[in-house]
Every structure is written in structure tokens, then in C-alpha cells.
## 1
Amino acid sequence: MKNVLLTLIGLLFITKVLAHRTAVDIMDTEAAKVMALIKIGGETGKYINLQEGLKLLEEAAVSAKKIKNKHYREVAQASLAVEYAALDKVDEALKITLSLKDEHLYSTNLGKIASKLTQSNPKEADRLLLLAIDKIMSNKHKNEIPPVFAELSGKYVKLKNLEKANELLNKALKRVELLNKIPLIEKLQIYAEIGANLIAANRKEEAFALFKKSHQLSSKLENPFEKAAILVMIGGELAEKGEPTYALEILQEAYTTAKEIKFIKQKNDVISEIARNFSQAKDYERASAIALEISDSYYVVEGLIRTAKNQIKVKQYNAAFDLLQICINKTNEITDKQRKALVIAKIAAELATIDKQVQSAQLLKDAYKVLG
């Protein structure tokens, strides 16, 4: 739900964990092929064959080291570490993460790894979270500290340490109000991040007050892309946290606003995210219809994959399977090889979750071939 806005405020939107200060989509850089390969390897390891997946991740690791731009290289390596952690290769994930120089990537990655360990090794999870907090505190970009505090608070909730979670949330709330020189759109994004984690910490009333405040302040945004981006984020958070009626109202406002966006890539990106969040609010028919309106097949597929994923969550397997077949057909229209491979891997992952392993395995092989 945060993807579009992350791009807007200076974050890489390929995945939430890879946020940073740049308006460049990582899939438009020299790291694109590596990012797609990491996804293919991760999904192969999770759903098809662990050793095959690890072999692909090793290949990606070699390629990642060759990325010339330091920042893009670290983004790819951070993504690689997350995939290793998802395959229970925590030592490898930590080795990569602890080598990162970027405070934001370092801290958020440690949070992800800690989350993986909350049941099996809570002591280690706690140690990693303290390390993540210490690292982000050294970040000279003070605007990045409150949202990371909020994100890490959610890991403490999972660790059943509400006291520490609330301590971080209170610090995030205080710090965000001290950020007087940041654009309104960025402050609203931070509010949404904090609000989502307030709910996780059982502070629902405060969370909805913050969402309402963000919604009201969004009316001051004159740029339709900015306004639609923050509205879709708020709507997505509300949908995810069990407030579908309010979510749908805000998502409809986002959709109306998005129609005014002039730059076509921004428009497609936002509308794809709107479709995804309509499905998060359980309006699957509306979500699919909106996604299919988009002119760029890559964004169509991204919207439909998320809709299928949300249908799978409520056991609407046949409907999800039908959407995934549409996605497969649509990938034939995507000319960018890296993006094409990326979404094929995502489709494969969803098919595997509904016991279509044979088709999933073939798609992952196809995705690898697409990369060349």
C-alpha cells in the first residue's frame, strides 16, 4: 500500500524494506536484472526447491557486487539479505546486512530479520532490534528516523514487548512534529506509518485520529499525484487494519484525484496501487476493473496479482486462479525484460500458494529465461 508514496517522498518503491532517499525506481537502474533474479531465487526457494533457490540467490549475490552505483548495489544486497532470511538462512542475511553502510537499509533489514526470529530466538531478535535502533539514530537524515522507529515498534509488538513498542511510537510521534522543514506529503506519509503501528500496539483510537488528521491535511496538497498517493496509502492502511468502509471512501477519492495526473507513468503507478488497496478492502470486483483500465500491462499485472493474493487470503481460490491466468497472458505485452521477469516470479509465487506447483515451477524457469 505504501509503494507509490515511497517513490514520491524519495524512497525506492520496489519493496517496503528497501526504502531510501531517491525518486528513482530501482527497476529503472543497472540493478534491475539483479533485483528480478533475487525475486526469482527467493520464490523458487520458498515454493519449489530450496537448493535451487539458494543457487539462484548465490548467482544474484555475485552480480550484485558488480553494480557500479554504490546505493543501487546496497539496495540489491539488502533485498538479497531479506530473501536469505525468508529461506531461514539467517546467518547469511545478517552477514550481508551488517556490511551495509546505509543506516536506513541497515536498520530496516535488521528489523525484518528480527521479525523472523521472534518465535525461534527472541533474545537474538531483541539484540538485533536494539542494534537497528542504535544505527538509525546515527542517520543524519532526521526525517527517516520517525518512520523507522514506527516500523521497528511493530517488530517489538510481534516480540510481545509492548512497553518498548510504545516507547518507540511515542518517540516517533514527538520527532515527526519537530520536522518543520519537510514537505507536507512526507509528513503525511510518516503519520500513516506511525498510525499503522499504533493499531498494532492496540492504540486504535490514536491511530484513527492520526489517519483522520492526515486525510484532512491532504486537501492542502495541490499536486494530484501527491494527493492521490497519500490518499491511497491512508486507504490501504485502513483497509488492512479492518476499517473497509472508511477505506473505500478514501480510495474512491484517491481514484477520482488520480484521473487528474498528467504524467502517464505516475498515473498508472498510483491507479495500480489504488486497485490493490480496493482488494485489500475486499472489493475484488472493483479492484480488478480498475487494474484492467490501466494502459501499461506491467501495472495492470501488479494490480491483479495483489488482488489475487487478497482473494487467496479469504479462500477464493478459483477467482484468484482466474486472475492469475489473466496476469500470465498480460505479461506477453510487457516489453521490459526485467519487469516482465519480476512479475512472472510474483505470479508463480501466488500459484504455488494454491497448490499449482507444477505451473509455478515452469513460470519461475520462464522468468529466469526472460532475463537472458
Note: Confidence is low (pLDDT under 50) at residues 1-22.
## 2
Amino acid sequence: MSATAILAALLRRLAPAPVVLDLGLPAAGIFPRLHVARCGVADAAALPAAERALLVGLRDPLRGLPPFGFDRAADAALLAGAPAAWGEEPGEGRDRLVWLPGPPPAALAPLWQDGAWALLRSGPPGSWPGPERGRIMLLAGSTAAVERFDLMLPIDRLAPVLEALHAAAQALVATGGRWQLGKRVVSARLASLTALLEAPAALPPPLVIPAAALLQDGPPGLEDGALPLAGVARRRLLLGGLPPGPVRITLRLRGVGSVAPVLFLGGLRQTASLLPDPDGTARLGAAVTLEGTAAQVLGLALPQGAAPPGLGLLGVEVAW
């Protein structure tokens, strides 16, 4: 179980779970372990041209928004704390968390003024660009591969959030396996939480990503929870950060008929099999080996005009 998977499992168990802005792209962030308010980049101008061209063409299927960093108006609304920009209902009042691959850029300062948390990989100590913060050092992963992250949050939230994360870790431990678990309070501004897996009880359950959570390069809009695929020759879908190694990727489809999409991963065609389900849907699955640390991109292709009018993608499953 990777450190990212453990952190996502802890955050999901908070009540209520924070809403997340994942700025890990184009490398792997915490999506799809956590469905997020938006994925994006902290500094779009610094991206290589090819990566920028790929990301700027992706869209949120519900709102039609590109990743954070590519739409000034939408980005400004999120930085201003607008609930709709964060995917919240008015008055919901959930904590907001920003996943960062490195030190926070100055442009994100309004978020820290508004009390947002930041979760970043541990690096050399430096000054925080905003109000003084508390720090919870998170040690996660396996006993053979420990990773450290820093959760930066308002000082008055450190103690209750630490207790909530520790309770979440105890609930995770209760699901099985052998763990090293611990917490330590160093001061009112510094604490640590350890959640290391010594031996898993079993393979993790499949990761399920609904169509509504998949950034894609087609027109926005869902039909009864499915992403329409009829009338398009190709579609690219952002799967996000997945650990390297062998997995089985399965697309849940409806209205397939006699023509199934051709599946690509990282631009390479994959051998896939189509299996019908009793409820009239179907599963298109392929055994693949994931490599590297970049966010994974799944491609679908259909012969022009061959897709049945009701063809739609309900979601993607990843099984280990």
C-alpha cells in the first residue's frame, strides 16, 4: 500500500472529509485516490509545451472547466473561496486541502489566509508564505519504503486534526494487516503521525473512478451518470497517479452493441476483452503494467460512425 493510498484513506475517514485541490499534475498527485474539487498545476507557464498542450485540452465533465492553472476566471473564483468553485454547497463549511508537489507558490497565498490546509512532500525547512502554520509530519507507506509528508494547517486546528487523523488511522488498521501506528505531539505547532504497513492482509480493493470524476478532452456533459462516447472518434481520460506495477484496468460501459472502443495507455494500444454484465452493461478490461511517476492517461478510439448512439462510459476500475 503506497503512502499516497494511506494518506487518501485517512483523509476519506475524516468527518467531514476535506475538499481537495490536487496540484500534482503532470506528475502523480492524490487523484484518483481522492475525488477532488479540481486537479491542476501550480505554475502552468513552467510546463513543457507537450505537457501543457495535453492538460489544457482536458475538461471537467460536469462543469467543462480545464485543470486549475488554465482558466483565469475559474482559478480566481477558487482562490477567492467561492463554494461553487470548490464543489461545495453553500454553507457546507468543509475544510479545504491543497496537495502540492513542492513549496507553495505566492499565487496561492489567499488560500492560506482563508485557512486552507496544504499537504506537501517534506523538503528543506523554509518560511511559510502566509499566516504562521502548524505542521503535522506524516510518515506513511510500508516499513520498507517510508515517505514523509507535511500537513500545514492553522495552529489552532493542529490538535483536533491530529486526533481525527489518529482515529482514522486506527480505523484503517482495523481493516486488516500488520501496522506500525503512532502519534507524537512535540509542541502546539508541531506533531507527527506514523502509519506504516508491515504486511497487508490481502490485495487492496479495486479503485473505482466514476465518469463524473474523470478529466477528459471531449465536450462536457453526462447522460444519466455516463460520459457519452457516440459520435467521437477518440477520447482521452486522466486516470491520475497510480503506483507502478501490474494492474487490470476495466472500463464500465453501457450501450456497447457489437463495437467496443479500442483501448490505449500512454499512447500504446492495449489488448482488451469485452465481457457483458447481467444488467445490460459491459466491461472492457486489459491487463497492463504501469511505469513511472507521471499521471496516467487512458485513450479510447472508435471507428468513425461505428459507435451505437447510446454508448457511454460509466466509470473506470483499477484492480491489483
Note: The CA atoms of residues 119 and 151 lie 5 Å apart.
